[in-house]
Specification:
The protein is mostly helical. It has one domain (about 1-100). It contains 5 helices and no strands. α2 (about 25-40) crosses α3, α3 (about 45-65) packs across α4 and α4 runs antiparallel to α5. The longest helix is centred in the middle third of the chain and has 21 residues, at about 45-65. It is globular, with a radius of gyration of 13 Å. The termini are far apart.
């Protein structure tokens, strides 16, 4: 099942590569990577916890998209290009920091 999810995620990234990622899609992808990383460490996240974290992420992403569009665009594009939470933290979190105001 895990491989199926990864293949579907990769296919979706290729399909929507030219489209800008919505805050909802951005956060859903980030949370999927975060959840996989936590589970890889033996730490299971409850569905309720994932839902709450995703909702908070969407709120923050919407504000960020308005206040710092260059940074948001960098993070959104980068999120499409990475496949793990570790890659996201390094490439998107740190890599896009130069776009912050």
């Amino acid at each position: 099942m895990r491989w199926t999810s990864m293949i579907l995620a990769a296919w979706a990234v290729l399909l929507f590569a030219g489209c800008k990622m919505s805050p909802e899609a951005l956060c859903k992808r980030q949370m999927a990577m975060y959840k996989a990383a936590r589970e890889g460490q033996g730490k299971k996240l409850s569905d309720d916890s994932v839902k709450k974290k995703t909702e908070r992420c969407v709120e923050k992403a919407k504000k960020l998209k308005e206040s710092e569009p260059k940074y948001y665009d960098c993070v959104a594009k980068c999120t499409k290009d990475v496949s793990s939470w570790g890659q996201w933290r390094e490439k998107c979190g740190k890599g896009c920091a130069k776009e912050k105001k």
